[in-house]
Every structure is written in C-alpha cells, then in structure tokens.
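Before a colleague's protein record goes any further, I have to sign it off. What it holds is a sequence and that sequence's fold in token form. My question to you is simply how this chain folds and whether the tokens agree. Thanks in advance; the entry in question is below:
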Amino acid sequence: MEEFVLHLQSLEPLPIYAAVLAIAFIENLFPPSPSDVVILFAGSLVGIGQVDFLLTLLAATTGSCLGFVAMYKVGHWFGHRILEQGKIKFIPLDAVKKAEEWFGRYGYWIIVANRFLAGTRAVVSFFAGLSELNLTKTTLLSFVSALVWNSVLLGLGFTLGKNWQEIGSYLATYSKIATLIVLLAILVVIIRMLYRSRKEGTS
C-alpha cells in the first residue's frame, strides 16, 4: 500500500485525480479500502503544489458519492432478493425487515455520519437502497458528508506534509475502532430483535 501511495508522487496531476476518484469509488463497493490514506497523502501533494486542492477534493468527493449511489442501486434492485435467498444466513428475515423499518426512520441521519464511519459505508448505502430512501436526498447528503470528511483529510495532509504517515497510522486505528463499535451496535440490535421475535412467538 505504501508503495502505491508513494508512486502517486511520480505521476502527473491528471492521473492522480483519476486515482483518487477511482479508489474513493471502489471503497464503497469493496470495503475495506485505503481511500482515506490515499486522500490524506494527496493532501501532502497539495502542500508541495503538485495537485490543486479543489480539484483533488472534487475528485475524492465525486468518487465517494458515485460509489455510494452504485451500492444504493445494488440494495434497491437486488437487496430483497439477496436477503430472501438466505445469502446472509445469520440474520433472520424478520430481523432484516425490522432493521429496514428502523433504517427507513433514521437512515438520513446515518448517511450524514456515514463518511466518518470507515468500514460501514457499503453497508449503509446498501440499506439506504433496500429501504428505498429518496435517491436525490440520499445523494445530496452523501455528497455533503463526503465533502466534509475529504476536506478534513486533505487539510491534515496539507498541514503535515511529509509527516502524513503519522496521522495515517492514527487514522487506521480510528477506522478499526469506529468499525468495531458500529458492528457491535448492529449485533446488539439484531440480538434484541431476535429476543423480541422469540418472546412474541412464545406468547
């Protein structure tokens, strides 16, 4: 990964923008992805004048937003079929339906926070499509969320310059902790749903 990131420094600006856009897009489809580290490094390239801040921000945010919409469409078109065929065997359909209702109620707030929760971005966009949240509103919120997060990453990279790797290690730790917390929260919700369903069944 470090070799790939450092290789970007030898490229012209246009391929760098393309690489930032592509990896930000891919992250939403095949997590985990090192997109945050790449964007952080791109910020250091902004600092030495190799790339433009606004164009890099636009590339990263556009890639993030397009990837989010792509996974949204997967959830919208194929989500129910995937779940009803038992592809995710440890989650009963009743729990999925209740989670879908819950996501339909609070989904827009989750989308806003989504960009700050590495490792869960594909799941959030999938369930946004599955829950049939408004695509226009969803796209706008995902764009704003990505814009803010990417601005922070580029700003940190710009400020730290050659020392970008220091924050990169902290960023990796943050991503793991945030992902773990979210997964534990999801697990608790599923257990509660199973308990309630079993309790209703016995009564």
Observations:
- The chain has a mean pLDDT of 77.
- The chain has eight helices and no strands.
- The chain has one domain: 2-202.
- Helices lie at 2-8, 13-27, 35-47, 53-84, 93-114, 121-130, 135-160, 164-202.
